[in-house]
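[09:14] KT: can someone run the structure on this one? pasting the chain below
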Amino acid sequence: MTILIGLTGWGDHPRLHQNHSNTKDKLITYSSHFPLVEVDSAFYAIQSPSQYENWVTKTPDSFRFVIKAFQSITGHDRKNLTNLEMKQLIQDFKESIKPVVEANKLNALLFQFPPWFSLQSKNINKLRKLREWMGAITCSSRVSKQDLVGRATSRHHFVFKKGRMDSCYL
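[09:31] RB: done, structure tokens below
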């Protein structure tokens, strides 16, 4: 088993970029130090395919991306989407990441669920549907519970790969 180590984002790490003033070079610099990055910006908005294509071309062939799922998919925005609306949203998201998938640079999709996403049957069903709708894409899910002051008190991590769901507490 190979363990890849990376950070969330490539632009917010001043020690990596202290010799580079051009912000356009930050991903290039980052990818010369780490083999993997979590794309956090995808959580806030579905990125355009051309944006992903740009990132793919700026990184070495061996570089990998963990792309965080859009917040409407994980329920952070608290919208109640129908199955049809969710399927369309997922299709739009999958279309956006196509350049990364086609370049074989997708390590996994990260579905970070909100603290109120408890392990009840309706949420387990949501995980199953997401697994089905994502197809062959490797997905990772994270659920964090917090105390009253916002500290993580427990985390549950699921990995969906090749039709199998592995689970572990962290």
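[09:33] KT: thanks! The CA atoms of residues 28 and 58 lie 6 Å apart.
[09:34] RB: yep, looked fine to me
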